[in-house]
Amino acid sequence: MKVFITRIIPETGLELLRNAGIQYTEHREKRHLSPEELIAACKTHDALLSVGGNKINAAFLQACSHLKVVSLMAVGYDNVDVPAATALKIPIGNTPGVLSNATADTAFLLMLATARKAFYMHKVIGRGEWGFFEPTTNLGIELNGRTLGVLGLGKIGMALAKKCRGAFDMPLIYHNRHRNEEAEQLLGARYVSFEDLLKESDVLSLHAALTPETAGKFDAAAFAQMKPGSIFINTARGAMHNEQDLLAALESKTIWGAGLDVTNPEPMDQNNPLLNMPNVAVLPHIGSATVEARSGMARMAAENIIAGLKGEALPYGVNK
Ligand code: DGY
């Protein structure tokens, strides 16, 4: 049995595959595979371990219907046509949970960096512009007691909410498809409508999946309803916000700042004006980029491959 792996992955996953007697081919070049290249590679393999946003759409799945399993080294599966895979009886796996802390840490980092203009100050020093101490310049805002609003309160949102409660005693409001009883009991979270989430959050952090409902949800109309002193954080998917509308909201001081680990599009252009704004912090989609999270993700992705190739149910399966 042979698996095609679209990027270099941590050794934890490769070792598991080798121990299970599974051969693998890694795409080691630092470039995206075209859809045609991905299909051609999969034709000679029994399974796919996919890292990054390869489009696992109906056309791909039909061309590669021989695949016994498609295992994503990611929690998000918005790049996969799951109903098409299910119809073709191809199991899809992902890696939930193991990256929640790392991603929540990234949201927390962006929140604080935005509030204190940290990334911008770093650049100011690099430009040789560290002037003299002035009591009225370089002012950020404090997060103590501010309201954290979460769109999509699952594992990552919960991890962030606990950090924010512990560090800054931040009350929690949230909007979800379903009520989160645990959050309500444990953290006193308050469920609100999407409109109230916009109106009441001091820090609004996105942790929902990218779906037709959340795509483009943060546009000019949404930013217009947010508090003037609020901070927008996106560590979920860049396609949930309109980058031009975000820029306009920041320039007009409709909102106070933004912290992005995901951008729209990715990668962000190096001349994007957001990169020069004091109240903006941007990272290159590194939410899960810790040794711990990535090792765990590689292990889970390999476990899904091993189960799929044996014809067993995936330990972390996505198809319903
Ligand atoms: C995930 O796990 O979904 C990360 O965003 C990587 O795509």
Automatic annotation (TrEMBL):
SUPFAM superfamilies: Formate/glycerate dehydrogenase catalytic domain-like, NAD(P)-binding Rossmann-fold domains. InterPro entries: D-isomer_2-hydroxyacid_DH (IPR050223), D-isomer_2_OHA_DH_cat_dom (IPR006139), D-isomer_DH_CS1 (IPR029752), D-isomer_DH_NAD-bd (IPR006140), NAD(P)-bd_dom_sf (IPR036291). Residues 109-287 form the D-isomer specific 2-hydroxyacid dehydrogenase NAD-binding domain. Pfam families: 2-Hacid_dh, 2-Hacid_dh_C. It comes from the Bacteria. The keyword Transcription does not apply. Belongs to the D-isomer specific 2-hydroxyacid dehydrogenase family. GhrB subfamily. This is Glyoxylate/hydroxypyruvate reductase B. It comes from Chitinophaga barathri.
